[in-house]
């Protein structure tokens, strides 16, 4: 189960990781009849095989939370899992979003509705400010991949 959670096809966000991309943190929530010793062995195998590339400047650990199955929800599986991860490849998604925003802003597309709102009565600086915040976030994620962060 832990290996499956790391597979790209099981992610909810489509990113294109590079060779430098790495995990900042991982939390796996395992629900059902999970044996804690098996979970520990699985974590050791993941670490030995280096299936998850972590940031070079921080601890390479996967946090695990075990929970019981819900008595109200019937599932065909004995065990299910959810992985919450912070990965530097998300910067690519943010970059694509900024590129799409730039193309729309260049053409002033879809801005009329916003200009009617009171918050944008003085101009659309709020959009430009938000773009700068996202660019800083992209830079932060790119810096996280470096050993000297």
Automatic annotation (TrEMBL):
UniProt xrefs under SUPFAM superfamilies: Tubulin C-terminal domain-like
Lineage, highest ranks first: Eukaryota, Fungi, Fungi incertae sedis, Chytridiomycota, Chytridiomycota incertae sedis
Every Tubulin/FtsZ 2-layer sandwich domain range: 1-97
Keywords of the record: Cytoplasm, Cytoskeleton, GTP-binding, Microtubule, Nucleotide-binding
InterPro entries for the chain: Tub_FtsZ_C, Tubulin, Tubulin/FtsZ-like_C, Tubulin/FtsZ_2-layer-sand-dom, Tubulin_C
Pfam families: Tubulin_C
GO molecular function: GTP binding
Family membership: Belongs to the tubulin family.
Cellular-component GO terms for this entry: microtubule; spindle pole body
PANTHER family per the UniProt record, alphabetical: TUBULIN (PTHR11588)
Location of this chain's protein in the cell: Cytoplasm, Cytoskeleton, Microtubule organizing center, Spindle pole body
Biological process terms in GO annotation: microtubule-based process
Name the record gives this protein: Tubulin gamma chain
């Amino acid at each position: 189960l832990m290996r499956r959670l790391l597979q790209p096809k099981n992610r909810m966000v489509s990113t294109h990781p590079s060779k430098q991309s790495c995990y900042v943190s991982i939390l796996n929530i395992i629900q059902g009849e999970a044996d804690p010793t098996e979970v520990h062995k699985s974590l050791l195998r993941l670490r030995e095989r280096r299936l998850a590339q972590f940031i070079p400047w921080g601890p390479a650990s996967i946090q695990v939370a075990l929970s019981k199955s819900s008595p109200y929800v019937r599932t065909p599986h004995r065990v299910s899992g959810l992985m919450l991860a912070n990965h530097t490849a998300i910067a690519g998604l943010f970059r694509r979003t900024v590129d799409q925003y730039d193309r729309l802003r260049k053409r002033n597309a879809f801005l009329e509705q916003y200009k009617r709102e009171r918050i944008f009565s003085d101009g659309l600086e709020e959009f430009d400010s938000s773009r700068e915040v996202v660019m800083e976030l992209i830079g932060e994620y790119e810096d996280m991949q470096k050993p000297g962060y």
